[in-house]
Automatic annotation (TrEMBL):
Top-level taxon in the UniProt lineage: Bacteria
Presence of the UniProt keyword Calcium in the record: no
Record's keyword annotation contains Transmembrane helix: no
A Pfam family hit: Lactamase_B
Needed co-factor(s): Zn(2+)
InterPro entries: MBL_Glyoxalase_II, Metallo-B-lactamas, RibonucZ/Hydroxyglut_hydro
Lineage: Bacteria, Pseudomonadati, Bacteroidota, Cytophagia, Cytophagales
Protein name as it appears in the record: Glyoxylase, beta-lactamase superfamily II
Stretches assigned to the Metallo-beta-lactamase domain: 13-195
Keywords noted in UniProt: Hydrolase, Metal-binding, Zinc
GO molecular function: hydrolase activity; metal ion binding
Organism of provenance: Algoriphagus alkaliphilus
Amino acid sequence: MLYIKSFTFNPFQENTYLAYDDLGSAVLIDPGCHTVGERKDLEDFVISKELKVLHLLNTHCHIDHVLGNAWAKKRFGIPLWIHEKEIPVLKSVEVYAPNYGFQGYESSEADYFLTEGQEFKVGEELLKVLFVPGHAPGHVVFYHEKSKQCIAGDTLFRGSIGRTDLTGGNHALLLEKIKTQLFSLPAETVIYSGHGPETKIAFEKIYNPFVGERAIQ
């Protein structure tokens, strides 16, 4: 079975996720932890569950999702995986981080690259990598078919979608990819977003004002 634990970190109220199986194998996704206290909260959970964190994954590389990358790589001794199109996005964070008040931001580099359709192993469980650009050029999501759970980053939110006015954003592309990639998942699929509460595909297909059946045309 795949378990998903969420934490809400940093001033952007970003959702960080730990996905782990019954044997305690885990992957850390989008670590937004920046303060000592936030990092301790994540670390304490890992210790309490006796988890073995094996990999670090980024859905995309905007600042709020990568603040804890360098710390996590060193603390758990794990490699970082991103989509290759996110390389410039990740590199740019060190340039603008001070403008957001993150004077102590430590940059990180990817060790491996995620590819569309890749199946990423979490112990005995598999996460499928879906390519859903639009919010960011190399944005991916992680789908667990067996439990119908999807860690979706900043693609789809409860009643909203990811912003597309940042560098590399593409509104029309995001709408298209949500409809073709995410809305093709089973209706009962739970969406764990990069911000805010979880939602379900069934709800968003009807009520989402951007991509749902009742969307304003």
